[in-house]
Design goal:
heterotrimer; A mainly alpha; B alpha/beta; C alpha/beta; B: alpha/beta; Rossmann fold; 2 domains; 6-stranded mixed beta sheet; 5-stranded parallel beta sheet; 11 strands; 45% helix; C: alpha/beta; 4-stranded antiparallel beta sheet; transport (chain C); ATP hydrolysis activity (chain C); translocase (chain C)
């Protein structure tokens, strides 16, 4: 019956993500292709094209894939968990908390360790933000409470991030605020992919394991409990999974807003509103969308690349407003 | 509030007027509020006449004359800091805050501004301007003569096969031709891969774009390399390291020698000339 | 199927709601929980559903409900909360299918047995004809039947329902009561919190009358709903008449 079209939609989204992934590797600034260079006659040209492919393009494309998947997945899961179509890791403060954690480790703790620990800082920051949100908004948060608490946490942690960066013993910290708060994939390296990917994978597994619990939550917490889902355990997996995945993602790419908000809404018309069934297509669509956005920022030929977070916010913020308007209209 | 402000300002003005009462003699209370003028003032002025310098002037990472500034009071380039030192001359930069400069003008404090040097001639102009303002033009000319001699020694002609070079600053910016660093590259016989002039002086270059330009020589402008920043992390990018290891030669250029266009950039010219000369021999890495 | 409740005590926000409450029940049986507001009816079925902490013992076929693994318990006890709603605009069929969640194997889609159970539940609740409709676009009465079908689809031996006919018109009230009756007639047990005493008396095999956290009367409808109990527990004078499906209780006057 419908499971076949569900499969087809997922295959389609996976194919889309794969196409953008390959395009992300081969298409450079201003739409210039790497393919020709890989087949250049001159050996140096060829080896340099390979170097760029392996060390510059591949990590960037992998980050687009992983971070997009993370944001799509966690956005869909948070919307299901909170039964609220406006939830998103960025809006509820997890992303900016992660940025704060990553910044503290990167600028103040690195002397002791290596870049390996930056994702840990991001994870800790995201988890603390989510914990505070939980305390602020209580068991059954209304849309308003949730968004306000999220705005408060975001504003506070962003301010702390800026403060930390102005106090940091780092010559460029103040300029780098823009990276942490607006996100970018430019010139990330394979090392950073390696450090962050395990956390994103672990977080994604935890979040994915909540799929049926999120379905059950459609009918409220009591009904979910009587359908055999331990509420505390379910929330713990969704929240900790989100913290791990988003924290690690932000620690490498900075805050990329609104992807987690927009993607589930784009996917719902295709697969319906059932939260558990949304997770896989949102993951795939998130990856495809972020890869596409990252291709978009490469299109302007001259000048510095626009930050990726600028593009996603430019698209996402109006969408968010439209959602609020629609929610207002539908409310009795 | 307004009234109190006026009274305070009047008090400060009275103090300043008293200080600058002795006219005609060289300034005895010089306050410099920008690193670029600090360097010139400390080199040229009589010891003891510079009463305060900008806060980074005493930092050996930032300043080539940190030892000269070591015992001086440091200022934050605010009108309050400046006026309380009762200056009879303030040295500032073309880009110093216009609000601060406007307050100084109201207090009738003479201000001399150095310009953003993007050529050797700009450097000479700045030296002359400061030397004249402090009343020792002859010291300025002597320093310029030494500077010119040093530059003459590091001058290199471009080779028949051009050597393409980039000065990559750790923020990911490459020095454009219309900067002092661009002028230095040309002076040492290199061809700058960044051909277009840039209003900001630096052109944003991703690692990929840098590699695409295939520079033979990568000069890295290093600033506080031991302090964490994304900018330094970018210099450690495997692709950049791999490119430099296999396809180019590299040299570090300490930021304190070039952040301000002063005669100290002759040291940079020496380093670039030495790098240029190394291309006549085999690569040693 | 045997449900045993012994010395059940429970508190809400520090106030004792259930005090030493005991009863046994054997299926198939349709049990109506009646009593005035605040008597502890909802608390009782929430305790049986293991949704709130309690003291004392509740066991199903000899196994204490609070020591059973949640999924195993979910297969045996279904629960329909008062005024349950779907938070997302799912199709009717998908809402009903949620009732099969306790039966699904990890990483497996619904089995043919699950599909059959979903069809059966939709059939029983008479919602099959709008299976593809968005549940949020249905009328209140239709939606109540869909959510009931969800609870039926669990095919649990014990179904707990909290005020299933509140806010329904008479037509839909009768519809829901008939569905519950039919479910019992398949050999299961239903415990329903009911406020409409006539409906309770007509459809239930047994009524338990709660007041201030204790059982005041327990037995057949005619035994429980006497003029005396209505006066002492509900503090109303009522007209009681009819037999079987015609049994009715009509409150007429408050007792001063």
């Amino acid at each position: 019956m419908r499971s076949r079209s569900y499969l087809l939609i997922n295959l389609g989204l996976a194919l889309l993500a794969a196409i953008f992934f390959v395009a992300s590797i081969y298409i450079g600034r201003g739409g210039e292709s790497l393919v020709g260079k890989l087949h250049a006659i001159d050996e140096t040209d060829r080896s340099l094209a390979w170097l760029i492919l392996k060390e510059v393009r591949l990590p960037r494309a992998l980050l687009g894939l992983f971070v997009g998947a993370t944001l799509g997945l966690t956005g869909a899961a948070l919307q299901g968990l909170l039964r609220n179509p406006l939830a998103e890791p960025g809006l509820i403060g997890a992303s900016s908390g992660a940025a704060l954690g990553a910044v503290l480790v990167f600028y103040f703790g690195l002397a002791a360790g290596s870049a390996m620990f930056v994702p840990l800082g991001g994870v800790a920051g995201a988890l603390i933000s989510l914990g505070v949100l939980y305390m602020l908004s209580g068991r059954n948060p209304s849309i308003v409470t949730l968004i306000l608490a999220g705005v408060a946490i975001s504003a506070f942690t962003s301010a702390l991030t800026s403060l930390a960066l102005s106090l940091a013993a780092s010559p460029y910290a103040v300029y780098e605020i823009i990276f942490w708060l607006l996100g970018s994939f430019t010139d990330r390296s394979m090392d950073q992919v390696r450090f962050a990917a395990p956390f994103m994978a672990l977080g994604a597994l935890l979040v994915a394991s909540t799929a049926r619990g999120l379905d059950a939550l459609t009918l409220g917490e009591d009904t979910a409990a009587t359908l055999g889902f331990n509420q505390e355990w379910l929330k713990a997996r969704a929240v900790i999974g989100t913290g791990l995945a988003v924290g690690a993602a932000v620690s490498v790419t900075g805050v990329i807003g609104f992807v987690g908000l927009v993607v589930p809404h784009l996917v719902r018309p295709l697969v319906g509103h059932q939260p558990g069934r949304l997770l896989l297509p949102s993951t795939l669509a998130g990856a495809a969308m972020l890869l596409a956005a990252d291709l978009l920022v490469r299109l302007p030929m001259n000048g510095p690349e626009p930050k990726l977070g600028v593009v996603t916010s430019l698209i996402g913020a109006p969408f968010f407003l439209w959602l609020i308007l629609r929610t207002r209209r539908e409310a009795p | 509030m307004k009234l109190i402000g006026k009274i305070l300002l009047a008090a400060l003005l009275a103090a300043v007027d008293a200080a600058s009462a002795v006219a005609g003699t060289p300034p005895q209370r010089i306050v410099s509020i920008n690193l670029c003028s600090d360097v010139l003032a400390l080199e040229l002025a009589d010891p003891g006449t510079v009463k305060s310098v900008f806060r980074v002037a005493a930092d050996p990472e930032d300043s080539p004359v940190a030892d000269l500034a070591a015992k001086l009071p440091l200022n934050n380039a605010t009108a309050e800091d400046i006026l309380s030192a009762k200056p009879d001359l303030v040295l500032a930069h073309r880009y110093s805050s216009p609000f601060t400069l406007a307050l100084l003008a109201r207090a009738h404090v003479p201000v001399v501004q150095v310009k953003d040097a993007s050529s050797f001639e700009d450097i000479r102009d700045n030296v002359r301007a400061v030397a004249a303002a402090i009343g020792h033009p002859e010291r300025g000319e002597a320093w310029i003569a030494r500077f010119d001699a040093s530059l003459a020694a590091s001058k290199r002609l471009p080779p028949a096969h051009p050597l393409r070079a980039v000065i990559y600053q750790d923020l990911g910016g490459a020095a454009a031709a219309n900067t002092i660093l661009g002028a230095l590259l040309k002076h040492a016989g290199f061809e700058n891969v960044v051909e277009t002039p840039s209003s900001g002086g630096f052109v944003n270059l991703t690692i990929e774009e840098l590699i695409d330009m295939r520079p033979d020589f990568v000069a890295v402008g290093v600033y506080r390399a031991h302090e964490p920043s994304l900018a330094h992390a970018q210099l450690a990018h495997p692709a950049l390291r791999d490119y430099v290891a296999h396809h180019a030669r590299a040299v570090d250029l300490p930021a304190k020698l070039w952040t301000c266009g002063t005669p100290f950039i002759a040291d940079i010219a020496d380093r670039l000339a030495a790098a240029r000369d190394s291309f006549d021999g085999p690569k040693v890495n | 199927m045997e449900l045993r409740v012994e010395n059940l005590r429970a508190s809400l926000g520090g106030a004792r709601v259930l005090r030493r409450l005991s009863f046994d029940a054997r299926g198939p049986s349709f049990i109506g929980l009646v009593g005035p507001n605040g008597a502890g009816k909802t608390t009782l079925i929430r305790a049986v559903a293991n949704l709130i902490p309690f003291e004392g013992e509740i066991s199903l076929d000899g196994a204490p409900v609070d020591s059973v693994e949640p999924r195993a318990r979910a297969k045996k006890i279904a629960y329909l909360a008062q005024g349950a709603e779907s938070h997302w605009p799912l199709s009717v069929e998908r809402v009903v299918a949620l009732g099969r969640l306790p039966h699904l194997e990890p990483f497996r889609a619904a089995s043919p047995a699950d599909e059959v159970a979903i069809e059966r539940a939709m059939e029983l609740a008479d919602v099959t004809r709008f299976r593809d409709r968005d549940v949020l676009t249905l009328s209140g009465g239709e939606r109540a039947r869909v959510l009931l079908a969800r609870a039926l689809a669990v095919e649990a031996e014990l179904l707990l329902v909290d005020e299933p006919v509140a806010s329904l018109d008479p037509y839909h009230q009768l519809g829901v009561m008939e569905v519950l009756r039919a479910y019992v007639d398949q050999g299961r047990m239903v415990i329903a919190v009911l406020h409409d005493l006539s409906l309770a008396a007509r459809y239930c095999d047994r009524l338990i009358l709660l007041d201030e956290g204790i059982i005041r009367a327990d037995g057949g409808p005619a035994e429980v709903l006497t003029a005396e109990t209505l006066r002492s527990v509900y503090r109303v004078e009522a007209l009681i008449g009819g037999e079987g499906r015609g049994f009715h209780v009509q409150p007429v006057k408050r007792v001063e």
